[in-house]
Amino acid sequence: MKIKITLLIFILIYPLVVFTQGNLQFGERYAIILGGIGGQKEFTQKYFQQTQRMYHLLVKNLSYNPDNIYYLFEDPNLDPEKIQYQITAENIRGVFGELSRRMKAEDQLFVFMVGHGTYDGEWSKFNIVGPDLRDLDFAQLIETLPSQKIVLVNTASASGPFIQKLSGKNRVIITATKSGREYYETTFADFFLEALTTEEADVNKDKRISVLEAFNYARSRQKAWYDENRQLKAEHPLLDDNGDGKGSQEIDMKTEGLWANRVYLGPLSPEMATTLKRVRLGTSSRMDSLRFEVYRLEQQIEDLKARKNQMRSEVYFRQLETLLVRLAKVNKELKQLEAQERKHR
Question: Which spans in the chain are helix H?
Answer without folding.
Answer: 2-13, 41-56, 89-102, 135-143, 162-166, 188-195, 211-228, 270-281, 286-306, 313-343
